[in-house]
Amino acid sequence: SDLEYYKSRVLINIYNFSLSTNKFTKFFYSSRLHFIIILEVSIGKMKSFENLCEKIPNVLGKRTTIQTILNESVAMGILLKYPCVKDKRIKFYKLSKDSEQTLKEWAEANIT
What is the pLDDT at residue 79? Predict the structure, then answer.
């Protein structure tokens, strides 16, 4: 059936992407929270740490864990960090070009 086909396809893609040596893909599949943060940052305009903390339920990730994952992603070049023009204390995050491309490939493999 169609449902069985899609479940099998998603499972195969999860295996393939999980076993990838690509740094973005390894990071993306590190944990449920890594996965959520990357998807949250990729949707719409740039997200700040505060935006993410408001959006992500505490049961999925505490502020310190979210901050740790953001710092790790910036250090790896997966996310880029930009200061807010109006308030330099606020930092915004967005995907790097390479990360955008890999996420697009992931979406095409899993959603289309």
Answer: 97
pLDDT of residue 112: 61
pLDDT in tens, 11-68: 887 788 778 788 998 899 889 999 999 999 999 888 999 999 999 999 999 999 999 9
Contact 78, 23 (CB under 8 A): yes
**Amino acid code (one letter) for 62:** K
Side chain identity, residue 93: Y
Instruction: Tell the residue number behind the tokens 């994952």, with chain if given.
Output: 69
Q: DSSP string of the chain? A: -HHHHHHHHHHHHHHHHHT---HHHHHHTS-HHHHHHHHHHHSSS-EEHHHHHHHS-TTT--HHHHHHHHHHHHHTTSEEEEE-SS-TT-EEEEE-HHHHHHHHHHHHHHT-
In degrees rounded to 5, what are phi and psi of residue 90?
A: -90, 130
* Residue 62 Cα distances to 48, 55, 69, 73, angstroms: 15, 11, 11, 17
